[in-house]
Amino acid sequence: MTRRAEVLDLAVLGLLVDAPMHGYELRKRLNILLGAFRALSYGTLYPCLKALLARGWICESVPADGDPALALTGRRARIVYELTAEGKERFQSLVSHPGPAAWEDERFDVHFAFFARTDATTRLQILEGRRSRLQERVEGVSQSIARTRERRDAYTLELQRHGLESVEREVRWLTDLIDTERASGMTHPPADDTDPPTRGEVTEPGAGHQLPARDEQ
Q1: Shared domain check, 80 and 40
Q2: Based on the structure, what is the number of domains in the chain?
């Protein structure tokens, strides 16, 4: 399984924790909430759903009360995807034992989106790991700029500076988050699965957890 496929599995399972969804709704939520998947296509999503079904992590159903309009047009009712008990266990395992890959570019945003369902110790581990990785990147880019300044044209140098400033802003944002977690005594529990939102209610992963805002570009 590729790294991108693993990230997509986590994202789909995490969204289905909140409520069952059909494919269109899932794709919309992925594109809106998770920046890593803004260009997600059905050609990518449906193979992922098929694989999750095969593993028994999700199940599918067709609403019993069909839409009369569908019957008149001959169109099929939309299939609804729902998390199984095994799927809930798999999701909790992914967010509780993320490993170093959780603070890489491909995965950090997805893990962060589900911080409300992640234990406080793991949240802090991911934030500190991400900050450490970006600090290494800042140091490397700074050294590269210093070494090659005389050999680079003004536009290349400006592009490098812009990238460096973006990473430095994220480091400051992460530091604020880490300070917030530590100041809270790491007392925020994961969201309670016993009271899921009602159908049609829009909720975002991590809602209700007070966080500092990212610096504007």
Answers
A1: yes
A2: 2
